[in-house]
Amino acid sequence: MTQATRTVQIGSAHGLHARPAKLFAQAAKDAGIPVTVAKGDAKPVNAASILGVISLGAEQGDEVTLTADGDGAEELLDRLSELLTTDHDAA
């Protein structure tokens, strides 16, 4: 079983609010392998849970750590990292 970890900075100007959190959580859910996301020393949350993702309170520039377990973990984290670093609030 492959485990991958990645630390990325939040790109959305207004942080991980409803829209970017929904996009991220849906992508994590669709992946079919367990993914967690954590901010700082806080307990990791299920990345497929929109409420869990929003509860992190991640703002633009905050670093979060993603962890995925399973086949294709590295590729999945590439896609999820891109979603987190993109500014979904840009006009």
Automatic annotation (TrEMBL):
Organism lineage: Bacteria, Bacillati, Actinomycetota, Actinomycetes, Micrococcales
Keywords associated with the record: Cytoplasm, Phosphotransferase system
InterPro entries per record: HPr, HPr-like, HPr-like_sf
Entry protein name: HPr family phosphocarrier protein
Cross-referenced NCBIfam families: PTS_HPr_family (TIGR01003)
Domain HPr, first and last residues per copy: 3-91
Transmembrane segments: none
Pfam families: PTS-HPr
Subcellular location: Cytoplasm
